[in-house]
Design a protein that fits this description.
Shape: elongated
CATH superfamily of the largest domain: Histidine kinase-like ATPase, C-terminal domain
Number of strands: 12
Radius of gyration: 31 Å
CATH architecture of the largest domain: 2-Layer Sandwich
Largest sheet: 5 strands, antiparallel
Helix content: 40-55%
Length: 412
């Protein structure tokens, strides 16, 4: 508060100079210098009262009101400029948790305009878990502050955002809780970078060390000349292929490090799915591949989305132990959350995706319970998220796995 008082005094000093009140200006300067040696909090408590008293002695009432009004308006304009220019979301809510103020930073981060969110519930509009956000509002009502809390919010499009929140309650004089101010920063890219580095570090260390160890063992056997070399050469060729695949996956991850609109492109799902289905049919002649795709099925997605689709389709066939493997690919369009969406469903009649692999596709962070030694599923998850899409895993109609990917339809 002391900084705000000093800012107001500075603005008052300039206002008095601009309006020619030199005597009142001198009195204001004397009052400030007299108090400048005191503690800053004491200065904040005493200075403004002395300033107003000085103005009252040297100005007519109408002049005094005009000067104070002009100074306060300038100070408010400064604060408003700072709020609007801030690169973070700044918003206020009333005692019921309904949004009252919404700056440009909030619009940039969450996609909603101020008119669309005013008088709407903060937990319902933004929070991934309204119950969790309601609990934070209860903390604020009880007088606590929120300091750097990390949680998930939702963009207007429905995509998930990692955010960090600071908030403080405010009270009217003599009244209880009247609302709170929130400052929210988008840390999605930072969190995604941390997750990718953690997965790369673990997978590359484990897989490459394992493959190199096996190659070294077979080279030792070849050197001893104890057995035929063909088998060893085949094993080494397979392991070297694994290392090449890991290298390619690492290169793909590099292209995902920053999410921006420029990375999204139009993907013709009908063409891409037909190409992938034809490839699967050639490689797995016993599999039955069914497709239901409309004539026009274009989406906005990351340039790597076809690679993510490859992972999903390959997984549906390669681990399918049914006598007659079946993969059903269905594409449909709908309108949700004020935007057109395209849904890609891939269902199979296999044994079902293990729980820890499901976690890889859907969890917000890597834990010891959802680690996978392959990068394919992690890449699928990251590519879908960088496409502003969502991914759900459930059981198919045949007891196997059904993966549902929702993406924004192509903009017209």
């Amino acid at each position: 508060m002391s900084e705000h008082v000093e800012q107001l005094v500075g603005i008052l000093f300039r206002t008095l100079a601009e309006e020619g009140h030199s005597e009142a200006q001198t009195a204001l300067l004397d009052a400030y210098q007299y108090n400048s040696e005191t503690d800053r909090e004491a200065l904040a408590e005493d200075l403004f009262a002395e300033v107003v008293g000085g103005l009252d002695r040297h100005l007519e009432t109408e002049e005094e009101v005009g000067v104070l009004t002009a100074a306060i308006e300038q100070l408010l304009d400064r604060f408003a400029t700072v709020v609007e220019a801030a690169p973070v979301a700044i918003l206020t809510v009333d005692a019921r948790g309904q949004i009252e103020l919404w700056n440009d930073g909030a619009k940039r981060i969450f996609g909603w305009s101020e008119s669309e969110v005013q008088q709407r519930s903060y937990p319902d509009v933004l929070a991934d878990s309204p119950e969790e956000m309601a609990a934070h509002l209860t903390q604020l009502r009880e007088g606590s502050q929120l300091t750097g809390i990390e949680t998930l919010h939702r963009h207007r499009s429905g995509s998930a955002l990692d955010v960090r929140i600071w908030a403080s309650p405010f009270h009217e004089r003599g009244e209880g809780f009247e609302g709170a101010t929130f400052v929210i920063s988008d840390i999605t890219e930072q969190k995604q970078r941390e997750q990718r580095l953690a997965v790369l570090n673990r997978v590359l260390r484990h897989n490459i060390r394992n493959d190199v160890g096996i190659i070294q063992g077979h080279l030792d056997l070849l050197a001893e000349g104890g057995t035929e070399g063909t088998e060893h050469i085949q094993v080494m060729d397979d392991r070297l292929s694994n290392i090449v695949e890991l290298s390619n996956a690492a290169r793909y991850i590099e292209t995902l490090r920053d999410k921006s609109e420029s990375e999204l492109t139009t993907v013709d799902l009908r063409r891409v799915i037909r190409e992938r289905a034809d490839r699967l049919q050639r490689e797995f002649a016993d599999a039955e591949i069914e497709m239901t795709v409309p004539e026009s099925a274009s989406v906005m997605a990351h340039t790597l989305f076809p690679y993510a689709l490859d992972n999903v389709l390959d997984n549906a066939v390669e681990h399918n132990d049914a006598d007659a493997p079946l993969v059903d690919i269905t594409v449909s369009r709908s309108r949700e959350s004020a935007r057109d969406q395209t849904t890609v469903s891939v269902a199979d009649n296999g044994p079902g995706l293990p729980e820890f692999e499901r976690e890889v596709l859907t969890a917000e962070k890597e834990t010891p319970l959802n680690h996978s030694n392959g990068l394919g599923l992690w890449l699928t998850r990251w590519i879908v998220r960088n496409s502003d899409g969502t991914l759900v895993v459930d059981e198919s109609a045949w007891g196997g796995t059904r993966i549902v990917i929702r993406l924004p339809s192509r903009r017209k």
